[in-house]
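Appendix B. Raw example, untouched.
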Amino acid sequence: MLFFYYLVFLILFAVILRPFSTLIHELGHGIPALLLTDKKVTLYLGSYGNPKESFKVVIGRLELFFNKKPFNWKIGLCLFEQQKLSISNQIFINLMGPLASLILSIILSYLVFFSNLNDHVKAILFFFNVSTYYDFYINIVPSKEPIELHGGTIVFNDGKQILDLLKHRNIPNEYYVGIEYYNNQEYNLAVIELEKVYNEGYQEGIIYQLLISAYLQIKDYQNAMRVNNLYDNKFKKQFDSNDYTNSGLIKSFSGLYNEALKDYNKAIELNSKNSIAFNNRGYTYNVMKDYENAIKDFEKAILLDESFAYALNNRGFAKIKLGFKEEGFKDLQESMILDGTNSYCYLNFGIYYHDNGEYQKALEYYNKAKEIDEKTYLLDEYIEEVKKKLSL
């Protein structure tokens, strides 16, 4: 009989009480986010941002994804679309999750110690109460242990995020201007404002990360390398998978291929689901003409993200260079369907026709790639080569 009692309690705890505790915590973040922003707020129960295998509930601007397996509901995530938000509001949203858990704990403590409930019910509530206090503790105490989200990005617990935000309270106004330009994809203007922030003495890790990303977006690899070296010297011990991926990309486009491979290896070691690191390492192998290893990396990237147009495109190039031209051409076609604005796809179509001796058609694709992005890597060399073939 006692065994049956404990079995029922464990099922009740796993299926109802723990999920309810997680929901309260995430609503603690979500409700303030709804009040302080005017865009969509999304809560995940049972995953760190994976909408698959979940049922969706929409209530106004609030979107909830409930994993179909309640036993997974011990974890959750709150995301909100609005990017421009004051430091104090961000701190408040982060703080309210643990506070919601604490309020639930206090209510349970009252029911356990001061109510007239049945002793068996009190026993269940007592263990649930211990669990909610534990929830509060692990979320409010800053932890350097990273949390890997579904998309491969890394975040930290509420306490660590609050601590980091408190460090940013005295950040110069140019930071917010730069962030707005960055979010609007006006990267040339973003780097101007973010460089001002850096020169004013605010040199936290986020400034280096934003500058590196913005310089990469405008393909200014010289400045990206400069900032990356500064970042490496000051924060190398704190590098995450994305930092190593960006560092590898800079070195790859700067011709430092072996150094780039080391960074990509480290990025994958830190996060085996980083599809971008696999794709970029494969691209570096392509440039080094190691097409067999390149294809292996593109296969892994596509396995992680089946709609990864760049990986399909790069795999197509590698197959063409290995002589599997029709298979490669098919990959290029699939990539083009997924992303018709990818200059590298047009470049690789040009290479396909170039290798087949159809030089005029190759030039047409090269010119289209140049229209989309004149800084496409090695594009000018291919154009010069095909023009020689055409005696232009």
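End of appendix B.
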